[in-house]
């Protein structure tokens, strides 16, 4: 235990430093976001072109609140990691993904607030193309450079299966699918004040502990650094939000969470410690499928958090209950990882 003390001190130091730096930078960032009116327009139509009447009823009052707040999180975490925790084997790739996907989201946010493009920002197809390219580069690096081709099956030994399953070249499409899916799942979850920030803090806390138990201290410290910045962001993002995360935050953090899941061989536990994101994304996909093929809605509004809004739940009630679920499932994910 004592031999890990320097790493433990580094973990708490960088997590605290990340929180304090982000807290100091927030007033500066929000000043310029408000000064230059860098806020997204509230959408008036659903994905299928129908009027988003219910959504507007709940969120029209938020129009004018700046976006791009996620910039605060990934820039703080990336800079501190580059100077104080950079490791070729552990943190280089997740930092690269954090910065590239964060930059993609920032570009999309900028186009949106400036009203550039036919859909105010990048089209859905173009976003997927860029996400696919970044994920493909990561998959290539994992498979050919790091020799990753196996996934860990939690509790496999308990049911008579091998705890590790070598899937060969299938690792590449699995990596791409998970990274792109989780990136967009986090983006979908970012719909209420504090919702994505709080659940992400729980998930990154989980992977920090998982990495630490495995002895991957660099990854654990990196995840802790993100948690520190997330908590500072959350201080200003809880209801009523001073600013929103935007695509720059959700893209960066969703993709990085997925990459760390692969680095820690906990990707099959991602649906556990990232439970809220999975449910939110699946609720949105189910709604689209049902409306397209059966002409019926499953939920009043999708994703799930908007459904509860339509049922009359206060925004803060939904957020805090989702936080509770997120924390509980994060703890369960850690326990399953440790005992496996």
UniProtKB/TrEMBL annotation:
A family per Pfam: Glycos_transf_4
Membrane topology: Multi-pass membrane protein
Residue ranges of the TM segments: 12-34, 67-86, 92-112, 124-143, 163-182, 194-213, 219-236, 268-286, 322-339
E.C. code: 2.7.8.13
Primary location group: membrane
Entry GO terms, CC: plasma membrane
Cofactor entry: Mg(2+)
Record's keyword annotation contains Flavoprotein: no
Recorded catalytic activity of this chain's protein: UDP-N-acetyl-alpha-D-muramoyl-L-alanyl-gamma-D-glutamyl-meso-2,6-diaminopimeloyl-D-alanyl-D-alanine + di-trans,octa-cis-undecaprenyl phosphate = di-trans,octa-cis-undecaprenyl diphospho-N-acetyl-alpha-D-muramoyl-L-alanyl-D-glutamyl-meso-2,6-diaminopimeloyl-D-alanyl-D-alanine + UMP
Subcellular compartments: Cell membrane; Membrane
GO molecular function: metal ion binding; phospho-N-acetylmuramoyl-pentapeptide-transferase activity; UDP-N-acetylmuramoyl-L-alanyl-D-glutamyl-meso-2,6-diaminopimelyl-D-alanyl-D-alanine:undecaprenyl-phosphate transferase activity
GO biological process, one term: regulation of cell shape
Residues given in the record as Mg(2+) binding sites: 187, 247
Coiled coil: none
InterPro entries tied to this protein: Glycosyl_transferase_4, PNAcMuramoyl-5peptid_Trfase, PNAcMuramoyl-5peptid_Trfase_CS
Family: Belongs to the glycosyltransferase 4 family. MraY subfamily.
NCBIfam families registered for this protein in UniProt: mraY
Role, per record: Catalyzes the initial step of the lipid cycle reactions in the biosynthesis of the cell wall peptidoglycan: transfers peptidoglycan precursor phospho-MurNAc-pentapeptide from UDP-MurNAc-pentapeptide onto the lipid carrier undecaprenyl phosphate, yielding undecaprenyl-pyrophosphoryl-MurNAc-pentapeptide, known as lipid I.
Name of the molecule in the record: Phospho-N-acetylmuramoyl-pentapeptide-transferase
Species assigned in the record: Candidatus Doudnabacteria bacterium CG10_big_fil_rev_8_21_14_0_10_41_10
Originating gene: mraY
């Amino acid at each position: 235990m004592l031999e890990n003390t320097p790493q433990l001190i580094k973990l708490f130091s960088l997590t605290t430093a990340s929180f304090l730096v982000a807290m100091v930078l927030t007033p500066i960032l929000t000043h310029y976001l408000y000064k230059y009116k860098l806020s997204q327009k509230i959408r008036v139509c659903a994905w299928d072109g129908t009027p988003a009447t219910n959504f507007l009823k709940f969120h029209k009052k938020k129009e004018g609140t700046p976006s791009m707040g996620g910039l605060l999180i990934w820039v703080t975490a990336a800079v501190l990691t580059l100077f104080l925790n950079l490791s070729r084997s552990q943190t280089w790739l997740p930092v690269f993904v954090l910065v590239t996907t964060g930059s993609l989201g920032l570009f999309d946010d900028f186009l949106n607030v400036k009203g550039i493009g036919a859909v105010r920002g990048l089209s859905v197809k173009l976003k997927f193309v860029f996400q696919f390219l970044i994920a493909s580069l990561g998959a290539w690096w994992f498979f050919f450079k790091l020799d990753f081709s196996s996934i860990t099956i939690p509790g496999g030994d308990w049911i008579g299966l091998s705890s590790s399953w070598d899937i060969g070249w299938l690792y590449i499409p699995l990596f791409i699918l998970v990274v792109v899916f989780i990136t967009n799942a986090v983006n979908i979850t970012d719909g209420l004040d504090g919702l994505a920030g709080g659940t992400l803090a729980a998930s990154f806390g989980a992977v920090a502990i998982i990495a630490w138990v495995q002895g991957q201290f660099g990854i654990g410290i990196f995840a802790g650094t993100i948690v520190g910045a997330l908590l500072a962001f959350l201080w200003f993002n809880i209801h009523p939000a001073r600013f929103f995360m935007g695509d720059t935050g959700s893209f960066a953090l969703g993709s990085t969470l997925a990459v760390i899941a692969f680095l820690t061989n906990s990707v099959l536990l991602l649906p556990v410690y990232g439970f809220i994101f999975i449910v939110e994304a699946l609720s949105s996909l189910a709604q689209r499928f049902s409306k397209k093929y059966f002409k019926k809605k499953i939920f009043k509004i999708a994703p799930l958090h908007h459904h509860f809004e339509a049922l009359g739940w206060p925004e803060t009630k939904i957020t805090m209950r989702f936080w509770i679920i997120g924390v509980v499932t994060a703890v369960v994910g850690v326990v399953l990882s440790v005992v496996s």
